[in-house]
Amino acid sequence: MAVDKLKSCEEALDRLINREPKIIEVDSYGDITYGLIEREAGNVSKGYIKPERNKFKSIVNRLEEHKSSVKRKPTKSVIEQLNEQLQKQKEKDKAQIKELTNKLHIMMADNLKLVERCRELEQENLELNSGKVAHIQNISKH
After folding, report:
1. For the packed helices 2-17 and 34-41, what is the interaxial angle rounded to 10 degrees?
2. Which of 18, 41, 90, 97: disulfide with 12, CB 3.0–4.6 Å?
3. 57 and 10 assigned to the same domain
4. pTM score > 0.90 for this model?
5. Tens digits of per-residue pLDDT, 119-138?
6. Contact at 8 Å (CB) between 44 and 7?
């Protein structure tokens, strides 16, 4: 059982390093913590990973290696990060506008069909009221 938890923590760390978490959402992948790993693993409790214990050495070493590699990489400025976020939001908004526009066109087409049907019914009503159409009484008995 403990091996399964350790394995799930290692897999969770892999997913976080590869920026493909399944359980949690992460804003900054440079700030991966033991708590994030535990939450991403899903089947371990808070505080499960103890850095001083030998069985967690592989996780601790990989996390430290990842953090040092993130520090070496040039970071984007705040403005660049905000521009990327705005661009992503803009793309989402465009997709939503396109979807809503399609729904609007469908709804308007349905409304036009209803208006046409109302005109037909009004015309039939006028014909019935003007006497152009003879009323047939149902005189059959069953």
Report:
1. 110
2. 41
3. yes
4. no
5. 999 998 888 888 766 556 66
6. no
